[in-house]
Structures are given as structure tokens and as C-alpha cells.
């Protein structure tokens, strides 16, 4: 990799780190990335509002291949004493999306300077953390007749600068489920005159272990109770309404839907038994991210050709990734570059993206651009 391009990428990464923005509010970040590409390349830029993409059009133009980077941050305080520490209170890049975007920019510089036989699309996406981004950007696939798409993520607790790959499911599907029940208030001394949803919620919570029984599914499903909010703080009032919030996960999206249906049926039965009004709401919905074996094999081949250490993942990540919205529409693969075996974990206060892995990521993407 060109030394100057690497230095530019590191400086850009530090700029992005100092100006983090939450999902769907990445105004400064998006503009800075566009300005960087305008300054250092002649690529075509297409502004789509909250997201954008750049295009390298080859004279040969054999295939249309896309590469995605995310650029949102997290609602976490910056606790590290860095010269480029976050300047935004309560917001910081603790997942490394600043590094993903900087590396994609570096890849764009390298590709424009060295040329390529394929048309390459550089997709810069907002709101990965909430699952909104890829759902909105997925139209990009059909509009540009994208034949294959790749993305990568930094990975802690793994060999530094090694590439990790897996076929099939790479990330579980997940969604946040809110069950709202509402009854009738009453004085706490006369609870029989009201309708309290606490007992119905208790039945749903108690049934969770049976609902996720492994014998009912070919892959793992999970249901995590994340929040229970019933009634108020007055000891004189019997609770009359509340919310139960659950996170549902599944190795296979179809089985997550089965779990959701089971919980809805149980909640409806319990609400009916107690005479409660019932409402469901969903948010933070992520599809299963499934890698196409042909695309994963290309990652393996590029690593062999470039001498990049390659390791196979035996299990997918339970944590979700919105990249699955793209692989529903075209073939592709999601891969990982190791930060180091003892590197701070993602979403922790001690985490900062490892600049040492940018070159490995760029070399991997350059190789995939020629496949």
C-alpha cells in the first residue's frame, strides 16, 4: 500500500474519531468523507441524503462490485486520553466505524491510482448500529446492478492482521420486541377492582426457557429480557399498564420469526385471560447476515495470494449486522480483520480502532476488486 495513502487514511480516521455522530445524525461525518474523496480522487460521487457512494468506472468494466463501510458512532463517553479524543459529549467511536470508513477511502485512493478491470462502488452507510442504514441503502443494489458486495469489521480477541471468514450465517438475525399490556387501575388496598398486567407479564417471562428450547429449532434462538416497566412508584396504586421489552435472536431468520409468533400467541392468550389490552411494537430489526460460499472463497483466495493470515470461524456471531439486507439481494460476504488477541473489546470504554490493521484491510479489498 502506498505510504502516503496510509498516512492520509490514519489522519482521516482520527478526524472522524474526534467528531462522532449517532445513527441517522451523521451530517458532519458524511460531508467530511465526501470532501476527502473530492480532494484526493476524481471518483463520481452520488449523494443520497443520509448516505452516499462513490464510483470507479473501468474502461473494461467487466463486473459491478460494491464495498460497504459504516460510519455511525455509539452513545458512550470517551474515556481515553487521546490527542484525537471525541469532542462530542456522550458520543464516541467505540465500534471502529471510523476505521472502516477511513480504510474504504484509502482503498478508493489505491484503486483510482492503480486501476481495475471492474466497476467498483464504494458505499458509505449510516446507522448500522440501529439497523436502519442498510435497510434504507439496499435500493443501491438494484439501481446499480451490483453483482457482488463485500464488507469487513475489525475484531478484538483475535490475531492481529489475520482475516477471519465463515460460510453461511455470519451474524444472527435479531429484533427488539415490546409487549404493551393495559388493564384497569385500582387502589392498592383493593387490587381485585382493577386489572393488573404484572401476572400476565410474569407468565410470559417464565415461559421463555421453554419457548427457546433447542429441540424445536435446527439453529439456536435466544430471547433476552432487557426491560420490564410495570405500574408506577406509588404504593397506593395497583399497576394497570406496562411494557415488557425482549431482544429476540436467531441463527436463521425464519426461526426467529417462529419464536416471535410463539411469544405473540402466548402474550395474546395471557392478555385475554386477564382482560388486558395488548399491543406489539418492534425496532432495531436486523436480518440474518449470510455469506455466499463463492464470495467467501474469493476472500480465502486473495488471502492466500497476498500472504495474509487466514483463519476459519467455527460459529457465527450472535450479535447482529445489517449487511444482511444486501446479501438478500445479491451475493456477497462479510469478513473480519483481527485487532489482536488482548485488544480491548468493541463497545467498551477502552476501545479505539487499531490503525495497524488498515493496510491489511485495504490489501484485502484491492484483491477482491479484481475477482
Automatic annotation (TrEMBL):
Pfam families hit by this protein: M20_dimer, Peptidase_M20
Keyword Oxidoreductase: no
Binding site for Mn(2+): 95, 97, 129, 153, 347
TM annotation in the entry: none
Residues in Peptidase M20 dimerisation domain copies: 170-274
GO molecular function annotations of the record: hydrolase activity; metal ion binding
Superkingdom classification of source: Bacteria
Entry-linked InterPro entries: Amidohydrolase, Bact_exopeptidase_dim_dom, Peptidase_M20, Peptidase_M20_dimer
Key word Ribosomal protein present: no
Coiled coil: none
Cofactor: Mn(2+)
Cofactor note as given: The Mn(2+) ion enhances activity.
Name listed for the protein in its UniProt record: M20 family metallopeptidase
Organism: Ectobacillus ponti
Lineage, opening ranks: Bacteria, Bacillati, Bacillota, Bacilli, Bacillales
Amino acid at each position: 500500500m502506498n505510504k502516503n495513502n496510509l498516512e492520509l487514511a490514519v489522519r482521516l480516521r482520527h478526524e472522524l474519531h474526534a467528531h462522532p455522530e449517532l445513527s441517522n445524525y451523521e451530517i458532519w461525518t458524511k460531508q467530511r468523507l465526501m470532501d476527502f474523496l473530492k480532494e484526493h480522487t476524481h471518483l463520481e460521487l452520488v449523494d443520497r441524503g443520509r448516505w452516499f457512494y462513490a464510483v470507479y468506472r473501468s474502461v473494461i468494466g467487466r463486473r459491478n462490485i460494491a464495498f460497504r463501510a459504516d460510519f455511525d458512532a455509539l452513545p458512550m463517553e470517551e474515556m481515553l486520553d487521546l490527542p484525537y479524543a471525541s469532542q462530542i459529549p456522550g458520543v464516541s467511536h467505540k465500534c471502529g466505524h471510523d476505521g472502516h470508513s477511513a480504510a474504504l477511502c484509502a482503498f478508493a485512493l489505491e484503486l483510482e491510482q492503480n486501476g481495475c478491470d471492474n466497476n467498483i462502488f464504494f458505499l458509505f452507510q449510516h446507522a448500522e448500529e440501529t439497523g436502519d442504514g442498510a435497510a434504507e441503502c439496499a435500493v443501491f443494489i438494484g439501481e446499480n446492478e451490483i453483482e457482488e458486495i463485500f464488507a469487513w469489521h475489525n475484531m478484538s480477541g483475535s490475531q492481529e492482521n489475520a482475516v477471519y471468514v465463515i460460510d453461511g450465517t455470519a451474524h444472527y438475525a435479531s429484533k427488539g420486541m415490546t409487549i404493551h399490556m393495559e388493564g384497569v387501575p385500582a387502589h392498592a388496598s383493593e387490587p381485585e377492582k382493577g386489572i393488573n398486567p404484572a401476572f400476565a407479564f410474569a407468565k410470559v417471562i417464565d415461559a421463555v426457557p421453554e419457548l427457546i428450547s433447542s429441540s424445536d429449532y435446527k439453529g439456536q434462538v435466544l430471547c433476552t429480557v432487557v426491560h420490564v416497566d410495570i405500574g408506577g412508584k406509588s404504593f397506593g396504586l395497583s399497576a394497570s399498564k406496562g411494557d415488557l421489552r425482549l431482544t429476540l435472536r436467531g441463527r436463521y431468520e425464519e426461526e426467529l420469526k417462529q419464536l416471535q409468533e410463539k411469544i405473540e400467541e402466548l402474550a395474546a392468550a395471557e392478555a385475554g385471560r386477564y382482560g388486558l389490552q395488548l399491543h406489539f411494537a418492534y425496532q432495531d430489526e436486523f436480518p440474518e447476515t449470510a455469506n455466499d460460499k463463492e464470495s467467501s472463497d474469493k476472500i480465502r483466495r486473495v488471502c492466500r495470494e497476498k500472504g495474509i493470515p487466514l483463519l476459519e470461524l467455527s460459529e457465527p456471531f450472535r450479535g447482529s449486522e445489517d449487511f444482511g439486507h444486501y446479501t438478500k439481494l445479491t451475493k456477497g460476504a462479510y469478513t473480519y480483520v483481527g485487532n489482536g488477541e488482548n485488544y480491548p473489546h468493541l463497545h467498551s470504554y477502552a476501545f479505539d480502532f487499531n490503525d495497524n490493521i488498515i493496510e491489511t484491510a485495504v490489501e484485502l479489498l484491492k484483491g477482491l476488486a479484481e475477482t
